[in-house]
Amino acid sequence: MDYKKVTENATPEETAAMPRGIPLLKDELDIVIPTIRNLDFLEMWRPFFEPYHLIIVQDGDPSKTINVPDGFDYELYNRNDINRILGPKASCISFKDSACRCFGYMVSKKKYIFTIDDDCFVGKDPSGKPINALEQHIKNILSPSTPLFFNTLYDPFREGADFVRGYPFSLREGVPTAVSHGLWLNIPDYDAPTQLVKPRERNTRYVDMVLTIPKGTLFPMCGMNLAFDRHLIGPAMYFGLMGDGQPIGRYDDMWAGWCTKVICDHLNLGVKTGLPYIFHSKASNPFVNLKKEYKGIFWQEDIIPFFQAVTLPKECTTVQECYIELSKQVKEKLSKVDPYFDKLADAMVTWIEAWDELNPAGAAVANGKA
Ligand SMILES: O=c1ccn([C@@H]2O[C@H](COP(=O)(O)OP(=O)(O)O[C@H]3OC[C@H](O)[C@H](O)[C@H]3O)[C@@H](O)[C@H]2O)c(=O)[nH]1
Ligand SMILES: [Mn+2]
């Protein structure tokens, strides 16, 4: 294994030379990209992404033109579109923060979502082979999770692995996988304080592992390289009120991850983390990030115990019902931390109302079994 390989991203030529497998879930999966930049990074991903439909959420100035490389099938929404489509409910979609990406989840009509940032390139595994991150996410999502009992040989459904001795046979069917959380080579997703003290740290460690996050355990979900089953857990993937006019930023995916995990635990759905890796190319400014994050850094000392203590009634059998119940508990128990959570709890309700308005069929169908 030549671990030096993982310190470089794959070139478009290297990726283009990869055998083009059958694009799994081609008509059942949308790729959602939040952007304030151009989308040249798609050239790197072309062999892997071209067969899929893209939903581009253009943040910031709607009068700016975002160029999408030829050959991609896409729909693009800017702030004017979001306001036009949602009307007053657009207030729940963040502006000037990558949290805006959740609008793409709402307007999609597909069963699966893969979301990626525009500074994430194709990574290489230790053998130097370009990593088809989308293909690995699909494998993760289409195979069961094992949140109820930890398998020490990691994901038992991967080629060359299985359940180990002592693993109860009654649990070996696993549960449906709702989320696949990928990782990052090169620039790791560190918070601002860590970025400031370790400005030159790069992640060169490629760990060949996929793990189910155990039931009852929270995790810091990063939205940079993430896939999920929209029909199973979509309404929980609200990325909160961040950015312009808000006291906090860069906690969009964290909030969504904590809400999603407690609901997955309640509905017996699984969350996996590990492979695939992408190559994260740009470190955002740690000083700007510190300004966005600092309230979150001390609020989360109250937020995490809140989510750890959350219980959802057995009558909540759909994601929407769980999410509305969660919003009530946020309003009741977190508003004393800061009035922001009162506003956020209301926005959570607006999000579900908007979701059900744009996805009427979803409003009736139970998303998972409690
Ligand atoms: O106001 C904005 C800023 C950025 N975007 C788009 O969001 C993606 C992430 O932006 P960037 O790579 O500059 O930030 P990072 O610090 O690397 O992002 C991480 O932390 C914040 C989020 O949680 C994010 O998911 C993490 O990856 C990128 O596509 C920008 O174009 C935006 O839409 N609006
Ligand atoms: Mn980035």
Automatic annotation (TrEMBL):
Keywords: Cell wall biogenesis/degradation, Glycoprotein, Golgi apparatus, Isomerase. Glycans are attached at R165. It catalyses: UDP-beta-L-arabinofuranose = UDP-beta-L-arabinopyranose. One of its GO terms (biological process) is plant-type cell wall organization or biogenesis. The keyword Isomerase applies. The record marks R165, R172 as: Required for activity. It is found in: Golgi apparatus. GO terms for molecular function: UDP-arabinopyranose mutase activity. GO terms for cellular component: cytosol; Golgi apparatus; plant-type cell wall. It holds the Pfam family RGP. InterPro entries: Nucleotide-diphossugar_trans, RGP, RGP_fam. Its EC number is 5.4.99.30. Probable UDP-L-arabinose mutase involved in the biosynthesis of cell wall non-cellulosic polysaccharides. Belongs to the RGP family. PANTHER family: UDP-ARABINOPYRANOSE MUTASE 1 (PTHR31682:SF46), UDP-ARABINOSE MUTASE (PTHR31682). This is UDP-arabinopyranose mutase. It comes from Citrus unshiu. The lineage of its organism: Eukaryota, Viridiplantae, Streptophyta, Embryophyta, Tracheophyta.
